[in-house]
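I am writing to request your help with a piece of structural work I have in hand. Thank you for your consideration; the sequence and its tokens are set out here:
=====
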Amino acid sequence: MATNRKDVSGNVAAGYAWGRLATVTNACLAAGDEEGAVRHYRQAIAADASPPPWVFAGLANVLLRQERLDDADQAFRSLATRHPQSVHGYIGQARVLQSRQAWQSALDAWEAVAARFPDLLQAFVGRAESLLNMGRFDEAETLLLQAGRAWSDAVSPVTCLARLATAKSEFSQARDRWRNAAERFPDDLFVRAGYVRSLLDVLDVPQSRAVFEAVPESSRNPAYQSVLADIHAASYDWPAALGVLRQVVESAPRDVNLRLKEAWNLRHVSCYIGEPIHVERAVSLCAALVDDFPHSLKARIALAECCVAASRHDDARRVIDGLPGGLETHRQAMELRAWKKCHDGDLAGAKQVWRAIEQCHYLPVVHRPLGSLEQLDGRAPRTSPGEVLLFTVLRNEAGRLPRFFDYYRRLGVDRFFVVDNDSDDGGTDFLLAQHDVHVFRTQDSYAKASSGMRWVNELVERFGNERWCLYVDVDEMLVFPGVENVGLEHLLRYMERKEHEVFCAFMLDMHGPTARHRPDCRPEDDLLPLYPFFDNTYHRAAAVRCPYRHVSGGILRLFRSTWNLSKTPIIRGGRSIRFLSSSHALTPAAVSDVTGVLLHFKMAGAADQWSLSGIGARNPRCVQRHLSYANELQALGQDLDFISESTVRYESSRQLVSLGLMQCPDDFGVEAPQPRGADGT
């Protein structure tokens, strides 16, 4: 192959026929020698005063495929200048802006294309894609419906409409649109892959496999074959998923996207299963990819992210510093630069980067329309300086409410803000009877509100200015060093002295002796004596987003679907801090050096809480994870013994510090309490 590539990419004398150029450049591209094709195109442009439009277009498209965005933009601009009648120069400039994720500028460019070439399908779809990424969904849909009527045989408006439904979290509608596209374009493997993935989004794994296998193996290309890895991952069969990707990459070693998919899955498995060897393998794969494709922005970003996950922070810094310019609106590059600024001690700079992200990207947790959020309690929620506020979202949690409020009142919370997501179990009446609780009711979708974070961010912004704000679920008990002796006031005063803005913890999943263990208890009873155990099998990894850590493991490892247990249950309001993914990820903030846990009593409740009706309207991945718990529990048996050599009985906060599960700096200034007795007292 190397000899053939050298023959193909040899020098070509000036003045050759344009047909010869087409033959040579096509041969270069077929051999994987994109640099050779670029060299021939440039030689031809330099040797002739008026090359035809396709020469500029060919050069520009190769440069864009290589992600050499500045060079591609220059080539497209040259094409538009020298051949203003050709549409490709204008389209190319808009595509470069889309690659930079400069959505408003891309929209403006597509509008200019539409004005110059009003009957161009690409202008309709290009505008719609820009609007979609800006969260202007209704405008995008109008354009796509117009395009679908005008070009009834075109596939791009149909697939873009399906992607639009996914962006709106309308997963059933997305499935229906992909199914319609697959019926209309049965031989299009991209469409078929979209249909398979849309079935995974609505948790129909058997049907997704049936649709996938309907394409004969001999007709599958590597990209389509990689969809089988998604099906395995949906069932948490990570070895099978990684095995498929390894085979696919071996069959298509020049496919950047497939190689990146393998690296991403390795990093994902490492974070969630706790095997560092996988993330080191991902780093190696990405480094090799950068060597093979030195201009690939995607490869460099993936390498930086994997280096962060592997705690190779110096390597991550070098990769981030080496990113090309002109990425002021590229979200992944911006997030990496924010991470670097924060780790270099420039928190103000990191926050400035995230303010820019909020301005140029649609973030559902910030920008999605709020919908209905009606206050029911009728009391003006005027908070006083120094008050500690707690925010939570719930639905049908009446059985947990008495102990929840009792615990956090004793801890030092002054006022509660509760979003009641259409409860019908009598819990709303209990909430309205509490003198220190403000109740906001909504019937809107919890999933579409980004697991309720759109509501919480709104309420924190309205009422939490310069107040300490807790966000916890009603099945979580916050524990920090010395919590048995001191309340929140001690912790918060310490954080104020240190100028910390957020407090990091992780969910310590508490359980009983067996899977069947469901003791009778009253709503006000302490759950800790009933569910006193935890599995000390936790794995930690670094993360790009605040609080810059990822924790997984515990008893959930038995269910093959452990996830990110890291949370930030306390933030300082009025500092432009946003919850991004529940409280697992935030915008940049000063993270405290004292940490805690959230005793998590997910195991305390009826067994049907993991049924489809019990889970409620969550996002598909969350529903999928909870259903996997039920499926694994059924497969392993209700009498599954939860006690193993890694099981620990909870004693005290001092115990957690000694086990390394919490950090307590010397100057935190608490006297650790004596351990609890075996009976939980």
Observations:
- The first helix runs from residue 2 to 8.
- The first strand starts at residue 374 and ends at 375.
